[in-house]
Write a structure and sequence with these properties.
This protein is mainly α and about 425 residues long. It has a single domain, classed as Orthogonal Bundle (Proton glutamate symport protein). The protein is built from 21 helices and no strands. The longest helix has about 35 residues, at about 75-110. The two termini are about 30 Å apart.
């Protein structure tokens, strides 16, 4: 079989660069043009969505097969409990660090206090309507913590699978499907009959077919990435970012510190691997995470890269990465903490130390429960705003730059999942390929 001239991750990065450059040029010369908007809406953005639809199409069979097999292959329930406890401890600890980084930076740079009265009025007028109403409605319909916990145990897992990506869906989400898959795997590990072996082979077949679909879909990835990033940059350009510059800087600086500082220390001293080699091995996954803004959409490629290039065994891979795509979202936790404090400064609300501690804990919990899809954190931010006395409508101020920041925090989320998988594999005695 002839060798490709360029590796896949290089093609994706090229697509990312070309799409971003073309989008910025289009924004500079044709910003607001009806022709440009028609082109984005009817041709370029839909093409990027084809790739996303192919990926989302196989997310549910991937979660069920990967998590059930990963759980069953652990065999010993005590081993499953140990790995689950390690994953939870890692998630809480690293998410706490991420939120503390974000809140420290907000108190240091005070981005909300540096906006002029003119720009403040402009922001409230421009971004205070639009998507704000939908986000407020989603937050108003949010369930209590007890309801959220109960919904993780699905009454009908197939209903959850069918409605999980619907705007009107109010079930347990991805966590409910994961719960079903984990318990299916536990039951398989306790059952030893020939009838059960047939089900295991069926799940292995599903997993293999899903991987084939992923490989086929990835052929479109460089072009889809270019289309998706063009759609964002052509519409937003740099004008909105310039107005909210200090806020954007604090979020990006915090995410960069966490991505290349915290993760590097974890990789070097706990996973015992080279951070540079690790980041190079997963650059393809980071590029997809950046362009799609979705941990769930990135999951299939993350599973493949983690096993093939990092060397994490499948039974650990399937459990940690699948669970982490929803539960381990360090970048989202950091972003939510920064945003709440930024908007508090913006509206002149002085938060006490106790209220800031509340924001820290709430951001950690929200990061664990946020859906791994674009914009999934916005309703949680509205709830946090209301909890500390900030107008919920304030969410509209940051909607103009949320997409850009969403892309960046998804990279941190996904890198955190892969780092967690590497750490847990190392603590279980496995040798990684990037050491």
């Amino acid at each position: 079989m002839p060798k490709e001239r360029l590796p896949q991750h290089t093609k994706i990065l090229i697509g990312l660069g070309v799409g971003a450059a073309a989008g910025i040029v289009a924004n500079l010369f044709w910003s607001g043009s009806p022709q440009l908007e028609w082109l984005i809406k009817n041709l370029i953005y839909p093409f990027g969505q084809i790739f996303l639809r192919l990926i989302f199409m196989i997310v549910i069979p991937l979660i069920v097969s990967a998590l059930a097999l990963g759980t069953a292959e652990m065999g010993d329930l005590r081993k499953l409990g140990k790995i689950g406890a390690k994953t939870l401890a890692y998630t809480v600890a690293v998410s706490t660090v991420s939120v503390i980084i974000g809140i420290t930076l907000v108190n240091l740079f005070k981005p909300g206090e540096g906006i002029s009265a003119e720009n403040r009025a402009k922001l409230e007028q421009t971004f205070g309507a639009g998507g704000t109403q939908k986000t407020l409605e989603q937050a108003a319909e949010a369930k209590s913590w007890s309801e959220t916990l109960l919904d993780i145990i699905p009454k009908n897992p197939f209903a959850d699978m069918a409605g999980i990506f619907s705007d009107n869906y109010k079930g347990g989400g991805v966590l409910a499907v994961m719960f079903f898959a984990i318990f299916l795997g536990i039951a398989l590990s306790f059952s030893k009959s020939d009838k059960v072996s047939i089900l295991i082979r069926f799940l292995e077949g599903v997993f293999e077919v899903v991987m084939t679909v992923i490989r086929l879909a990835m052929k479109l990835a460089p072009y889809a990435v270019a289309a998706l990033i063009f759609s964002v940059t052509a519409r937003l350009g740099f004008s909105v970012v310039a107005t909210l510059g200090k806020y954007v800087f604090v979020v990006l600086f915090g995410l960069a510190l966490h991505q290349f500082g915290v993760y590097s220390l974890i990789l070097r001293f706990i996973a015992k691997v080279s951070p540079i080699k690790f980041f190079r091995s997963i650059d393809e996954v980071m590029a997809i995470a950046f362009s799609t803004s979705s941990s769930n959409a990135t999951l299939p490629d993350a599973l493949r890269v983690s096993e093939e290039k990092v060397g994490v065994p499948r039974e650990i891979n399937s459990f940690v990465l699948t669970l982490g795509s929803t539960a381990n979202q360090n970048g989202t936790a950091l972003y939510e903490g920064v945003t709440v404090l930024f908007l508090a400064q913006f509206f002149g609300v002085d938060l006490s130390l106790g209220q800031q501690v509340t924001v820290i804990f709430a951001s950690i919990l929200a990061g664990i429960g946020t859906a791994g899809v674009p914009g999934g954190s916005l309703p949680f931010i509205v709830l946090l705003l209301s909890a500390v006395g900030i107008p919920g409508e304030g969410i509209g101020i940051i909607l103009g730059v949320d997409r850009i920041l969403d892309m960046c925090r998804t990279v941190v989320n996904v890198t955190g999942d892969l780092t967690a998988a590497a750490v847990i594999a190392k603590t279980e005695g496995h040798t990684l390929k990037v050491s």
